[in-house]
């Protein structure tokens, strides 16, 4: 069994039309958080997504004034607070290659890096550059993955048990190679859905996300999540910290 620790870089803001499908009319900016997840157990130290530093740098002064109640925290500082140094991480699982989920990959020099094959190939294909502009897909981390980290990069397909009790499941809705992660804990299965949902409300009110690659796959992922008797930990919902104030499961 594993324990899952919720790490939170801080608060920021997303357009309502990103969080909620446009047809539902939820257009106002939405306050979100930046969660990523430390998994420990069975002799392993695993990170699911990398967090992102300096969240304030992505916000306007007005957004900071209205929505940010405390300074953001760096990924490395959060890990050290949890008693983990970056070099201790032996497995890094990336749900997808949007900048806020992979940008700090270079912090982890000893980790095997698990990524869906479709995601890797799609983002790197020059003909897809209009869908993966540099502003949202910084190339420096891709270059690092393809060079310094090449021997540690593991491309997977479909559903794979990457460690005993930890599975990745291709969903392909939010991005072509998006994958969710399930973790066995003493409290039951934990699902880390990446960005197939942003908020619990996406599930509860049956409102799909507004930023998607394949709408049918988004809906299928939502149904899959509902069909599993599991603890769900969205990456961007502040409610996660209300439901799990200790930030630890299992």
From TrEMBL:
Residue span, Metallo-beta-lactamase domain: 33-236
Known function: Counteracts the endogenous Pycsar antiviral defense system. Phosphodiesterase that enables metal-dependent hydrolysis of host cyclic nucleotide Pycsar defense signals such as cCMP and cUMP.
InterPro entries: MBL_superfamily_lactonases (IPR051013), Metallo-B-lactamas (IPR001279), RibonucZ/Hydroxyglut_hydro (IPR036866)
Keyword annotations from UniProtKB, A to Z: Hydrolase, Metal-binding, Zinc
One Pfam family linked to the record: Lactamase_B
GO molecular function: hydrolase activity; metal ion binding
SMART domains per the UniProt record, alphabetical: Lactamase_B
Protein name: Metallo-beta-lactamase
Needed co-factor(s): Zn(2+)
Catalytic activity line of the entry: 3',5'-cyclic UMP + H2O = UMP + H(+); 3',5'-cyclic CMP + H2O = CMP + H(+)
UniProt similarity note: Belongs to the metallo-beta-lactamase superfamily.
């Amino acid at each position: 069994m594993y324990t899952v620790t919720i790490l939170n870089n801080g608060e920021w803001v997303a357009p309502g039309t990103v969080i909620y499908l446009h047809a539902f009319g939820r257009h106002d900016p939405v306050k979100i958080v930046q969660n990523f997840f430390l998994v420990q157990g069975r002799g392993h130290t695993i990170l699911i997504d990398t967090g992102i530093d300096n969240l304030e740098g992505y916000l306007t002064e007005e957004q900071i004034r209205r929505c940010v109640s405390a300074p953001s925290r760096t990924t490395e500082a959060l890990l050290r607070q949890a008693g983990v140094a970056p070099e201790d991480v032996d497995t890094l699982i990336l749900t997808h290659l949007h900048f806020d989920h992979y940008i700090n990959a270079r912090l982890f020099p000893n980790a095997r890096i698990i990524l869906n094959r479709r995601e890797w190939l799609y983002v790197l294909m020059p003909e897809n550059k209009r869908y993966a502009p540099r502003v949202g897909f910084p190339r420096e981390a891709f270059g690092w993955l393809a060079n310094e980290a090449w021997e540690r990069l593991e491309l997977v397909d479909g559903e794979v048990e990457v460690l005993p009790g930890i599975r990745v499941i291709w969903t392909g809705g939010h991005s072509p190679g998006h994958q969710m992660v399930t973790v066995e804990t003493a409290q039951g299965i934990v699902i880390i859905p990446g960005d197939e949902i942003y908020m619990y409300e996406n599930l509860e009110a049956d409102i799909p996300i507004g930023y998607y690659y394949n709408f049918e796959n988004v809906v299928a992922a939502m149904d899959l999540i509902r069909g599993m008797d599991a603890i769900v930990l969205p990456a961007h919902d502040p409610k996660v910290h209300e439901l799990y104030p200790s930030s630890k499961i299992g």
